[in-house]
Amino acid sequence: MSEQENPVFAIEKIYIKDFSLEVPNAPQIFLERESPKVSIQLQSNAQGIGDGIFEVTLTTTVTSKIEEKTVFLVEVGQAGIFRVQNVPSENMDPLLSIACPNILFPYAREAVSDAVTRAGFAPVMLQPVNFEALYMSRLQQQQAEAAGGAAGEATA
What we know:
single chain, 156 residues, alpha+beta, Bacterial Protein-export protein SecB, 4-stranded antiparallel beta sheet, 35% helix, globular
């Protein structure tokens, strides 16, 4: 196997693409004594930006509420540019949907924790995420939708 045929996976750049912090009910919210409920949403997106170059963005949204009042809302779009070459096409989607978000997640976790602390709240420590399980779940959902659509067409 020649050098050109060897698979290449390299991190070119890691950066924050989008960042938002809102504390809409300050300063009154700091007087609340009730513990807030925190919800977390994750979404990843990959796009080709050149020959063998991909941008992957992991968007992490953390919302903290007391009843219907928003305590804070943090959204971080942690992105990376990755060089991927000589990788079989069937391995590209798992690589961009599992490996890249795994690399980006610690940076997103740090950005969220730092923002929440700087806003005057106790840090939010995001627990590790199994991106492989999320990927497999998404595949199963897509297959179920495709099977449901095919069944609907057959009966029509």
